[in-house]
């Protein structure tokens, strides 16, 4: 797409108008590629950890990825499901997996934000 864009820029300069349209198309293509990469990483994390992002959010009762809220809910659910207080090891394990999945999603988002910031500087 980049080669075509520059060809379009050169032609646009001669014809007088294709440049903005071509640059928008290149920008859209780059954004689409970043989105596909992020979705692929998120899907891979779901497969590796064995739990989807949506399921992890439901288990820890969080609607957005707020690290403080995730940690607070994790601490509470881990404690109340402790086997020594009559809790369920199975449920406690689900809570741990949910926290791992959400932590991984936060890591993916932070990495993407860092890359976006780096690309904006260049």
UniProtKB/TrEMBL annotation:
Give its localization: Mitochondrion inner membrane
One cellular-component annotation, GO: PAM complex, Tim23 associated import motor
Pfam annotation, one family:
Pam16
Query: Could you tell me the Gene Ontology terms of the biological process aspect for this record?
Result: protein import into mitochondrial matrix
According to its record, how does it sit in the membrane?
Answer: Peripheral membrane protein
Q: Which residues form a coiled coil?
A: none
| Protein's UniProt keywords contain Transmembrane | no
List UniProt keywords, sorted A-Z: Membrane, Mitochondrion, Mitochondrion inner membrane, Protein transport, Translocation, Transport
Q: Does the keyword Phosphoprotein apply?
A: no
Where on the tree of life does the source sit, at the highest rank? Eukaryota
The UniProt similarity line reads: Belongs to the TIM16/PAM16 family.
Q: What protein does this entry describe?
A: TIM16 translocase
Native source organism of the sequence: Anhinga rufa (African darter)
- Print the organism lineage: Eukaryota, Metazoa, Chordata, Craniata, Vertebrata
Q: Name the encoding gene, please.
A: Pam16
